[in-house]
Structure formats: C-alpha cells, structure tokens
Amino acid sequence: MISSVEPVPITVLGGYLGAGKTTLVNRLLSGDHGRRLAVLVNDFGEVNIDVDLITSHDGETISLQNGCVCCSIADALGESLDRVLALDPAPDQIVIEASGVADPAKVAAYGYGWPGCRLDAVIVLADAETIQVRAKDQFVGELVTRQLRGANLVLVTKSDLVSPEVLDSVLSWAHDVAEVPVLPVTRGEVEPEVVLAMSRSDLDVGSARVATRDAPPLTDADAMFETATLRFPGPLARSRLEAALTLWSQDVVRVKGIVWFAEADGGNAEPHVVQRVGLRWSIEPATTEVSLEAGGGRLVVVVRRGALEAAALISDLVEA
Amino acid sequence: MADITVFTARRGRTMEASMPTAEAVAVRDGHIVEVGTLENMAPWIDGYDHEIDDTFRDHVIMPGFIDPHLHPSMAAVLLPMEFTTVVEWDLPWSEIGAVGGRVELLDRLIELDAELEPEAPLFAWGHHPIWHGEVDRETLNNISATRPVIVWHRGYHSLIVNDACYRWMDIDLEAARRHPHIDVDRGAFFETGLGVAYRHMNSFLLGTERFRAGLDRMRQVIHHGGQTTIGDAAMGMYGFEEEWEHLKAVMERPDTPFRIQLMPAEMGPVGDEQSDEAMIERILAYPQRNTHRLRFSDHVKMFADGGFFAELLMLKAPGHLDGRHGEWMTPPERFEQVARAFWNAGLKIHVHCTGDLGVEMALSTLEKLQWERPRFNHRFTFEHFGISSAQQVARMAEVGALASVNAYYVYELSRAFADHTLGYERASQMSRLGSLERAGIRFAVHSDFTMAPAKPLNNAWVAANRLNESGEVMCSNERASLDAAIKAITCNAAYVLGLEDEIGSLRWGKRADFTILEADPYDVGAEGLRDIPIWGTVFEGEKFPI
Lengths: 320, 546
Known about the structure:
The complex is a heterodimer.
Chain A: E1 8-14, H1 21-30, E2 37-41, E3 54-57, E4 61-64, E5 69-72, H2 77-85, E6 93-97, H3 104-107, H4 109-113, E7 117-127, H5 131-134, H6 141-149, E8 153-157, H7 164-178, E9 182-184, H8 192-195, H9 200-203, E10 225-232, H10 238-247, E11 252-259, E12 272-277, E13 280-285, E14 297-304, H11 310-317
Parallel strand pairs in A: 1-6, 1-7, 2-5, 2-6, 7-8, 8-9
Antiparallel strand pairs in A: 3-4, 4-5, 10-14, 11-12, 11-14, 12-13
Chain B: E1 4-13, E2 21-28, E3 31-36, H1 42-47, E4 50-63, E5 65-70, H2 72-78, E6 82-83, E7 89-91, E8 94-96, H3 102-115, E9 122-127, H4 129-132, H5 137-143, E10 149-153, E11 158-161, H6 163-169, H7 173-178, E12 182-183, E13 188-190, H8 193-205, H9 208-224, E14 227-235, H10 240-251, E15 259-264, H11 276-285, E16 294-296, E17 299-303, H12 332-344, E18 348-353, H13 356-372, E19 381-384, H14 390-398, E20 402-405, H15 409-420, H16 424-428, H17 433-438, E21 443-445, H18 456-465, H19 482-487, H20 491-496, E22 514-517, H21 521-524, E23 534-539, E24 542-545
Parallel strand pairs in B: 1-4, 5-14, 6-9, 9-10, 14-15, 15-16, 17-18, 18-19, 19-20, 20-21
Antiparallel strand pairs in B: 1-2, 2-3, 4-22, 7-8, 10-11, 11-13, 12-13, 22-23, 23-24
Helix pairs in contact in B: 2-9, 9-10, 12-13
C-alpha cells in the first residue's frame, strides 16, 4: 500500500508560443500511459480532447476516461493546484503548462513550496524553425533566452521541418544557451514517457518477482525515445550510482526508480528513490512503503532512440 | 417639483470652446437643456414650470470630473487596510500622514496595534523598500506577539508577516521553507510565494462583508474627489460574476452620485470559448446587462507589460539600472492576434503599457493594424504611459492613438526611480504629457486608484507642475498646459471613454453632472489646482454635497 503523504510531482512545461506545449499536452491527456495526470493549462481553447474520452466537464475541470484531468488555471495557479490535489484519489503527477511569457523557473517554485507537491522537472520546448529568430526578437528575445536557461531539459520540436545542418546548429546553440541536455523531437510529438515522473504507481509495482539484469525489449520502433527497465537482484554501491547519474550523457533523458544500497552505504533497510531529469538528479529515502522485495531494485530509463544499449547502462552500475 | 431647475453660479466653466464661461445651467430630467445666461434662457424659463437654484452663487460649476481608469475591486480589497505609504492620503474618513521612513513606519504600526480590536489582523499597505528599508518577521513580532501583522508592498509586490500571522494563516512552515519565494525566517512572501499567502488570506480579504464594506468606502472616495464618472479599467480581475454582483449591490443605489463605465480585461478566449469570434460575441453582449450606473460599452482592456510601482515595466535598451527584467503580461504575438480580432470587430482597445518596450509593442501592433485595415476614430488608448520616447509620441500621433496617463507617477516615483530604477534622464521624463500635447494627441490623466489618490484636481496639478514629493520639478518641458490638464479630467477623459457626447463639458443635451468648486481653476492657475476646495457634485441634476 502506498500512503497518501507522498508528495505529488510537479512537472513544468515551458517555452514560448508555438513551441509545441499544447501538442504535448494533448498527447499526455489522450495517451495510454497508465498514469492519472492532472494537466493544468492556461485555457481550454487550444486543448483538443476527443469528446468520446470526456467523462465530465464542470467548467474548470475536464475529466477523462483514462483517469487524467485537465484544469484551466484561469490566473490562479494556486487554486488550480489545490483543486487537483483535492481529487480522490490524488493524481499521480501534475503537469503545469506555463504561459508562453512565463519564466518557467519561477513557475517551478510552486513545486518547492506548495503543500503536497514536489518539483519533478522543468522541461522547456523550443521550436527548431523559430527559436533562434525569437531569441533575437526585440520584444521576447531576452525572455526566450531566460526560459531556456531555466530548463532541466530542452526539447527542440519540429526538428523534422529543418535541414539536418540547421538542426545541428540549433541543438548546439540551445545547448550553449541552456547548459542542459537538448534533444530533438519530430512532429512536435514528445513521448509521454519523457514527461512522466516517478509516481506512486511506480512505487506500487505489485509483485516483485523479477530479479534479472537482462535488458528488456525496447519500445515503439518509430519513437524518438526508448524506455528500458533495469532490474537489480541485489543492493547497489551508492558511489557508483552517483557517478553514473553524474556522468551519463544527455542521451539519458530520464532515470527513475527504487534501489537499495549495500550495507557499507548505510544499510539496505531503507529503499531509496532515484530520479534524474536532464543533468539534475536526486537520491532520497523513500517516504512511503514500497512493495518491492527488499534488497532488489529497478530503474526505468528513457534514452534517445539508438543512442545507448540498456546493457551498457547496467554495466555502469553493477559488475558484469 | 418643477420641470426645469436652473443652477446659477459665480461662473460656469463649460470646457466648450464656443462659449467657455456661463452664468447658469438649465436642467430637465437629469440632462442639460441650455447653458448660458438667464436672459438668453428666457424661452425655457417662460415656457416651463421652473425653479432657480442659487446654491452655487459663490461657486464655480465645472463639468463633472472623470477618472477613466481606476479599479474599484482592487480598492475594495485595500481600503479596509491601514495606509502606510511614503505619501499622504486624504480619505473621506481620515487624513493619513506620510510615512516617510523605517522609524515612522514602525511607530505607525505600534499606534495602529494599540487602536485595533484585539483579535483583528493588522494589514498595513504601502511598504516600499526604497523608502522604508527592510522590515522582517522579528520587527513585526515586536509590534505584536498575538495579532497577525501583515505589511504589504506599495505595488503589491511582496508581503511581510509576523509569527502570529503564521498561526492565523495556519500555514505549513516546513513546506513554506522549501519555497524559493518565501523566506520563512524573514516572514517574506514574494513573486510566486504570494500565491501561497493569498491562499490563506483570500477567504478573509475577499469575504463578502469585508469586500462590500471596501467597495462602499470606494464609493465615498470617488465622491470625495469630485468625480461623477469613473472607468473600471479591468473589470473581472477577481472573478467577473462575483465582481458584477458586488458592484450591483453596492454601487447601483439612488445615493451613488456617479456612474461606472466598465471595461472588461481581456487576454483572449476564456473558458469554453473555442475562438476569438466567441470571445467577441461574449464581449458585445455585456451591454445587455447594463443598469443605470453600471455600463459596459465597446471598449476593452488589454495588457502589455508589468506594473510600474512593482518595477516590472519592459524597457528598451539600456534596460533597468540594476539589470533586472520586466514582465510581459501578454505574449506579444498573442497580443497582436487578440488586438486584431478586436480591431476588426470595431472594438475600442485600451492597453496597459508602462515601459517604453511595452509602448513599442502596443504601438507597432497599432501601426500594423492600421496598415491592414485603416480605421478612423478607433480610440486606441495607451494607458499609464510610464516610460516612452518623444519619437514614439510622434508615431502615436500618426496613427491616431490616445493616451490616458498616470501623471502622479512623477510625484511619488520620479526621484526614487531616478536613483534606483532608471537613472535621471528617463525617470524625469516619465508620464510625458508635454510631448503628447505638442503632438496634438488627446489625453486624460487617471489615478489607477490606489496607485494614485482618486483626486482629479491633484492629478491635474501633477500633470501641470511635475513637482515630485521631494519638491523638485522633473522635466518642465513635459508639463501639460493648465488647459490641457483640466481637459484631461473633463472633456478629454470623456473622449477616451467614448462618452464625449454625453459628459465632459457643459452643453445642451449632456448629462447634468457637475463638480462644484470654490474657485475657477483658470483663475487659480496650475500651482493651486490641488488646493481648490470641492463643495460637492451634482449627478444627473441632483445635488450631492461632500
């Protein structure tokens, strides 16, 4: 059982108008990802939800068949947060679509201090076709640059609409500006997995039968990103995990999971929650009961497709 | 009661170029039938049952003053609070002295603590670090260990509280400690941390009884300033329907001596609206709600950059003195789309602009719209107009823009902004009125109350003198002439609201709205404008002494 005190992760989606935030929001809301997401948007006008999927609509909140809800922020982010936190059961994750002129790093502040929440990540989207022009615009240049600098992870959207040479230059420019991992995505389609945080449902894995280091099959051949679950039969060396989390390349977009450490690292009585988004990572004692077998562990990794083998990541963590 | 009432006066100041002064105004059913001399009015007087009312034989009748931009709802939240600003306030229920520095602020808080009911929270509004320095939780604990004490920033930018307030708010301090915009030890909430504070205070501040008591104080303030028409320049800030109900309950009463022209604040389609067309349909339907005193029209309010007092204006190079950044309130591209929808629907657009980059954004949008679909008489109005350049003013003239200016910025902020925010050159030229007048651009001056006192004569005085609170004249070349300053609170303010055929001057057919003064502003001159005593007002023919 998972107690209700686990804070709900907040993920902030930032980026200027046209960066693809709404496309991503639409995908998150209609996706078959098994999470109960609460997505807070500035207005419903641009959100395109298939009416067949809507189970109720009370003006400020739209509830969907897959358990997700979409709420309009309507100038009062705090009130919207309270509204979705009061849902029963509480959402697995809250995604805030920041306004196009917001500084997402400021919006992220809600993830630190709003009761019942924690910050998962600030993900900023940038349109490959226009971002460099906007960064020089007299009205929004400074803002667009500041948005990139507030990100933990930058996703360059519509990357299939520019030539490979242009894309390379945009990626390298954005990396210089943001100083965090910058990844290209096509057709404005970001796999939900990139946005999904460690959640209650990750902790509540049910049976803990698996105890294998075999790399599982990777998902969806068309996707830009691949997801693999790394499973460990025994405790990890904390220093080794920390080194890996620090050194893994920007192709490792997300890491999330539960591990136990060897006794020398503080015993294996307490499971620890591991999270990494972009280059920012944390290891914290799990505050809720975890229904994994003590001593084992698993990490879900999202990597850029074709960039890495799951086995290689495992070998960074445990002896072959 | 007689059919016609003729008000005679020492002088009527008509604000009509054809006949600048008069000795009598004849009124029927709340409207003027004739302005001029008793002799010339003979056909009216002889033809109808009438009375001559010489109450104003020693006074001057002016057209009723108009403040086209203030915020009754914001004022309703603030007016129940204690005022502790660096400038003085003359409010109908009390005269509040200036609170000039840190020691004065603390003394004032101690006094207020002694005066208030034991349990009541003490909300003090007006703190600005430029003058009052830093105030923190411990400072306020020394004011009271038991009473919640809340010190609110002059531009709503931050608030500081004591331990008793933490208990009153019932706030989770552990969570607050993790918040980057809450400093629990200092008791400070700022930027997004304010949302956490409001969460615990709104049920108190926006409670119906308190809010309506605040609105009722606003009613008194408006009358006290001699105003007979005001513009609510962002209807709906705290929730459209709630505000509408409160306004109807408090303002729509026979003893309310003014009308409110309501301008909805619009950023784009809201709620279920799927398109700009749906938004426009909603806006065009608002006038169907109109009551006698509460009226929507075809004017809408938009927002460019952030607040002036809060120093969130967007600036062109060289930016802020300390390198800080302002804020866009609407994404520039979205602004253009929404403005285009309004423009093409024939609506009148008012834009909140505080910095020269904000002005540039609104102005370049207007230029583009004029190019796409030329309009005359469009009333596109730059609101506040904090920082601008003379070159921007020239372009505004080319495309037929108007301005509604917060002249009072010069009084309270020009010295502080010269030293801390902008440097002298830009700060001294804030609210540039002389350039507007030379370019032939019609302008109003407004209070944006509580940003400035809701006293049109005071705002006209700042406009015509540009004296600041330190007693310096800031850029004499940007002063408005006496005539332009008075037009800015009468006929040109009416023009900005699109009501020039109804109010703003003394002329046949207009509403019988008068502000009754003890002296003629044209005799007193620019220097004395703010000291002219106000007898009261006449609203639609009925006398309302102060």
